[in-house]
């Protein structure tokens, strides 16, 4: 065999070897790229899932916050003749983070008006003649009334029932869809049927059992009751 043929054969063999090496290198590079692409795709997919999970959590949290907003707010409404109910009402509102509204007669009650031992006093005459109990109020309208889901109504007890200026407010408002909780202040009388009578006059709302406070209750008495409502 001539040297030219041998040289040609060697060249062919070298070409085949180099070609094989290049082919294997390309295959490894392709596999490596595919692996990297798969890893990147997996990372993207994982990140997307994490974002979706994060978004789901945010949605849940927002849902809870919206529920609280939809649940509405709490309002404390009160009439106070001598300041006892007013003091209790403000402490209740503070404990419950509630808004407050005062029932104010156009013709305020003086100390003489409130002297129930005097047959000629205003409250005595109003007690004896129900037609006099339609007390005109400065206002019966509460701003954003529809936003309140819970309304607490406080009043002093007069002759075993709610002081009648409260009647005017109750009759003037629609309590539909609201939870209503009465409370009273009294030196001796209990809540009696005062809450039930107001519920009859309102003819709407879900009226719950009320609570009686003595005229000058302690903060702990008020706190214990408001804690039971939360």
Write the layout of secondary structure elements.
Elements: H1 3-70, E1 73-78, H2 84-96, E2 99-102, H3 122-128, E3 148-158, E4 161-162, H4 165-172, E5 179-185, H5 194-202, E6 206-207, E7 211-213, H6 219-229
Parallel strand pairs: 1-2, 1-3, 3-5, 5-6, 5-7
Antiparallel strand pairs: 3-4
Helix pairs in contact: 2-6, 4-5
Tag the structure with descriptive keywords.
single chain, 230 residues, alpha/beta, seven-stranded mixed sheet, 7 strands, rod-shaped
Whole-angstrom Rg: 40 Å
Helix-strand pattern: HEHEHEEHEHEEH
Q: Give the overall shape.
A: rod-shaped
- List low-pLDDT spans: 34-38, 41-70
Amino- and carboxy-terminal Cα gap: 107 Å
Biggest sheet statistics: 7 strands, mixed
Number of strands: 7
Strand content: 15-25%
Q: Can you count the helices?
A: 6
Mean pLDDT: 81
Structural description of this entry:
With 230 residues, this protein is α/β, with parallel strands linked by helices. Helices cover 50% and strands 15% of the residues. It has 6 helices and 7 strands. Strands 1, 2, 3, 4, 5, 6 and 7 form a 7-stranded mixed β-sheet that branches. β1, α2 and β2 form a beta-alpha-beta unit. α2 packs across α6 and α4 runs parallel beside α5. The chain is rod-shaped and about 150 Å long. About 15% of the residues have low confidence.
């Amino acid at each position: 065999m001539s040297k030219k043929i041998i040289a040609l054969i060697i060249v062919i063999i070298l070409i085949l070897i180099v070609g094989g090496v290049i082919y294997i290198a390309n295959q490894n590079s392709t596999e490596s790229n595919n692996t990297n692409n798969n890893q990147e795709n997996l990372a993207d997919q994982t990140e997307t899932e994490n974002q979706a999970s994060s978004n789901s959590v945010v949605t849940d949290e927002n849902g809870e916050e919206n529920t609280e907003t939809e649940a509405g707010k709490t309002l404390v409404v009160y009439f106070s003749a001598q300041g006892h109910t007013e003091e209790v009402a403000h402490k209740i509102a503070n404990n419950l983070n509630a808004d407050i509204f005062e029932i104010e007669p156009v013709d305020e009650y003086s100390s003489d008006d409130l002297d129930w031992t005097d047959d000629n006093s205003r409250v005595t005459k109003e007690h004896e003649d129900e037609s006099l109990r339609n007390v005109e109020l400065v206002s019966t309208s509460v701003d954003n009334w529809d936003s309140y889901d819970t309304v607490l109504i406080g009043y002093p007890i007069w002759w075993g029932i709610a002081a009648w200026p409260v009647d005017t407010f109750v009759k003037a408002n629609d309590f539909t869809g609201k939870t209503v909780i009465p409370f009273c202040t009294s030196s001796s009388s209990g809540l009696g049927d005062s809450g039930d009578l107001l519920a009859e006059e309102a003819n709407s709302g879900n009226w719950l059992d009320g609570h009686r406070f003595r005229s000058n209750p302690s903060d702990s008495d008020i706190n214990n009751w408001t804690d039971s409502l939360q």
